[in-house]
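Entry under discussion copied across for reference:
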Amino acid sequence: QDLRLASPFPDLLAYADAIDLSAMDPTDIGHVPFVAIIIKAMQRWATSNGLVLGTDTIDIPFRRLDEIRAIIREMAPSADEENFAEAVKMVSANCSLYEIPSEVSLIINDRAAAETNAASSVNPSDDAC
């Protein structure tokens, strides 16, 4: 699962920003999606590191992901909140900067791909698949 939370799309960032955990009662906090919790934690981490999530490139080194987990634990109103525990578990998989795989970059940057036009054709016999 790759949610690319290191560079969230604007509407997702706005959704997370609209959630005020401090104004919510315990029942409502239990319904906040783990994605929003991670984004809020990443915003705090970014701010403390002089960055802005959604504007700056956020590349959190693997060894520093525990800082995000600690922020999430601090945000939790109690230790038994399932969505916060789920957020802690999902940090490693969702807080890394996404990179286009090298194989895909080769195709995107291939001159033949850049110079396609109406006269271009594909020969199925050349297809390696």
Observations:
- DSSP finds seven helices and no strands in the chain.
- The chain has a mean pLDDT of 87.
- The helical segments are 10-18, 26-29, 34-48, 65-75, 82-94, 102-109, 111-114.
- The radius of gyration is 20 Å.
